[in-house]
Design brief:
6 strands; alpha/beta; 233 residues
Amino acid sequence: LHLIAFKLFGFVPVAICPTVQKSIAEYYNMPIEKIPCINNGIDRTMFKYVNEEKKDDHLRIVATGGFRPVKNHVLMIRAFDLFFKKYPYSELVILGDGEMRKNIEEAIENYNLHEKVILKGNVSNVAEELNKSDIYIMSSDFEGLSLAIAEAMSCGLPVVTTASGGTVDIVKDGINGFVTSVGDAEALAESLYKLAVNKDLRKQMAEKSLELAENFDIVKTVKQYEELFEGKR
């Protein structure tokens, strides 16, 4: 039905990032230039950087998102365990809830991390939690364009993530974070360690995250959709 709509009736598929744009072009055999790309947008008046005073001797890593299989939080726990063995002055705070909670709790128990991995559940002060943290981590097997990562960047966090779909369009490896292979706990742990031991690198990547987050401002997204509806894109 989508193919008929696109090919015969002039429906326009909108890609939320270049990776999705490419996949639409390949899947529906469409010229990529016929597929407008408009980033997902976030409210940057809500998710904004606050210069919180942070402890130099303690690292706070944060993750957000529903506890669903595709998010692979168990991989995250494994990566944190590997990292924690090298850098014990740290904690992992995970915001969210869902069907995989029991699996995540079992992984925390298996690695004896119950005092170092904190499951906060669903919270209303996500921006505040992000601003209290030093690094954002995502371990998904697949993503479109992650609003969660964009929100973390808008709060001035460097990002460690798997190369899951559109994450490669928002996190620039070595620039505002590190991008690792999907399913690679060792690479996630090593990326965390690189940031943990180098405060200057964290600061540099945090500043770049803030700069890149401007591309995902909901105000820009709305304007681009307006232009699309007016036939200007």
